[in-house]
Batch of 2 targets.
Target 1
Amino acid sequence: ALTSQRFVRDARGNRLYRSGDLGRRLPQGEVLYLGRLDHQVQVRGYRIEPGEISHRLLAHPQVADAIVLPLEQEERGELVAWLVLEEKTTVTELHNFLSRDLPSYMIPSAFVLMDAFPLTPNGKINRRALPEPIFAGESHHFIAPRNQQEALLQRIWSEILNLEEISVTANFFELGGHSLLATRVIAALQRETGTVLPLRSLFEQPTIAQLALEVATAGRSHSLALTTQPRHGDLPLI
């Protein structure tokens, strides 16, 4: 039944597929693409229904209203969530809440907290009047790297996020980071230092200062493991 709904015959008997896209045939024969019939969007190669993400955000006890849309700047290829909160919460908490049930490519790269959504004269949300997201962490003073680990992480983040002067207290995900970029951070860290961290480390320690402590701890553990390796000819202790 689903196949017969999606695959139909035209007047000439050709088999056509209902893609869900809206288009208009021009006099010269070309087809002008006008958009989707539903609300699906394509972000980083994945078909996404933003309403599903909004629905999940509304399940959070501190979220009163939510709307998720793709960023108009196509080169970023990211989702943005606009939220009205019942009570104060952090972007990290919202990010972690979504991560429990949604795949990484459906997690918004920016969260915009508002007192109320702008409305049209008909009382609907005025999407065009929603404020542009600012990919710059929380409002705090800039803190420069204070040790070798923080300096290395700042350089890696700057290259991957394409940002300059990142404070060591800035949140990776509030700067526009997402799971795919987090994977690149972990890979770059391993390539330059040999330190192997699980991907969850960046989600649990989303600032340079926090992650640098974990890098230092992992580095000491790695060095200890190397010094305690038995030399050739040594007998194992029992």
Target 2
Amino acid sequence: MTGSTGFIGRHVTAFLIGRGDDVCAVQHPRSQRGAPPGATVVRAPLEASALAEAFRGVDVVVHLAGVVSTVREREFFDVNVEGTRGVAAATRAAGARLIHISSLAAAGPASPSAPRSEDDTPAPIDAYGRSKLEGERVVVDTPDLRWTILRPGVVYGPGDRALLPLFRLAALGVMPLVGRATAAYTFVHVRDLVRTIAAAIDHDLARDTIFVGHPRPVTTRDLLAEVRAAARTGAVMVRVPLALARLAAIAGDVGGKMLGRPLTINSRRYTELAAEGFVCRVDRLRDKL
């Protein structure tokens, strides 16, 4: 498994080891993160030649490693596309199956009234989404490879840091409501995503792409209300016009480049917030996994 030290990867590793599977965790040679308990660790970059030994004797490869946030757009493609190319080639050479974890961002936005299905033409709106879609195409175009592509929506749960800024804002007493009032998103708890990955390991759904999420989409207002309730504060929701958010995003781009790391609000985040939402159907998930 690649990406085993990340938010999702640690949950997947713990679950698979807990049910008795042997897990080989591939870590980048320069990674400073601690290895997941119970996994056999192999240090290798996401290159076919380096992964050949790690994948020898493996039945299924779960590819979770990827870049989700960066100030260098090229990094999305270096890892999410070229890294996937190395993983796909090494998986094929090992005669294993590949469970490739992509993202709803690869499909693009959709409203709650017209959720995306897996058969819709993808239309990603930012570099991250385009890199994930291109990574999917690398998998699909790899000859003689048995694969399943999973596209989770917004993943949350223990260890997630993406929603942490909202909790910090709630503690300060302010909950900014940015974007369209009708926008909504497909969410999935990390434990449900782990169960889906395990089901994909157990069921050979060769050459299938499946959205992963809870059936009911969550509006931005509902999300803020739930965070406020969980934080147990009396934070006030404040409507933020998109024009003001756009200015904050530009400032975030500049600040991110100066600091060498993406800030909470930047142009990519603004593009997502200005969209009609990211909602998908989960019929195929229910029927097949």
